[in-house]
Specification:
The protein has one domain: Rossmann fold. Helices cover 31% and strands 26% of the residues.
């Protein structure tokens, strides 16, 4: 997978950077710097092309996921993170997914896998319209920051509230910041730093 690894201070966490639709592995590097420049960074480019724009999984329409592809790509990405942990010598427990939009959505898929040991995530503009009836992952030792939009043209307020519920129902500690739209704001980044 196309990626960038940047070594930070020994023993510090590792940001897993996951860009939005049409982005690449360089997109969120400035965000990682703002959050904590001493952390290592593993930034991965999505391998699915939608009209020439990179994404992490296919969708059938706006807000309608190809769930089979999402499952397949989530598993593939998680295996890549496991391989990277060996190659770059970091612990999986120290990985903090930082996602925007499509990147947040694949991050949720990975976090909800039974085998994933992550403890924290920072997710901006997430959307997860997936049936989770059979998912009982316990997230009671998990901290998540969610930045969601009041007037997001892509994610309705109800859909944002559903993402918050997904984590609360699984006993995660949830911090949320409401911004205006489908965006990454400085206010949200400062709020996200609090949970680090």
């Amino acid at each position: 997978m196309n990626h960038i690894f940047k070594q930070g201070d020994q023993g510090k966490p590792v940001f897993l950077l996951l860009h939005g639709t049409g982005g690449d592995e360089r997109d969120l590097l400035p965000l990682a710097e703002m959050l904590d420049p001493t952390y290592s960074v593993l930034s991965v480019k999505g391998e699915v092309s939608e009209n020439g724009m990179a994404r992490y999984f296919r969708r059938l329409a706006e807000g309608e996921y190809d769930v089979e592809d999402l499952e397949y790509r989530g598993k593939e990405l998680y295996q890549f993170i496991e391989e990277s942990a060996k190659e770059y010598e970091f612990n999986l427990e120290d990985v903090i997914p930082v996602g925007f939009s499509n990147g947040s959505n694949i991050a949720i898929n990975i976090i909800l896998r039974e085998e994933t040991p992550f403890k924290k995530a920072l997710l901006f503009a997430p959307l997860y319209p997936v049936d989770l009836q059979n998912n009982n992952k316990d997230l009671s030792d998990f901290n998540v920051f969610l930045s969601v939009g009041e007037r997001d043209p892509i994610v309705t307020k109800e859909q944002s509230e559903r993402v918050i519920q997904i984590f609360k129902e699984r006993n995660a500690t949830v911090s949320e910041t409401w911004v205006n739209s489908h965006e990454l704001t400085q206010e949200a980044v400062l709020a996200a730093r609090e949970i680090l």
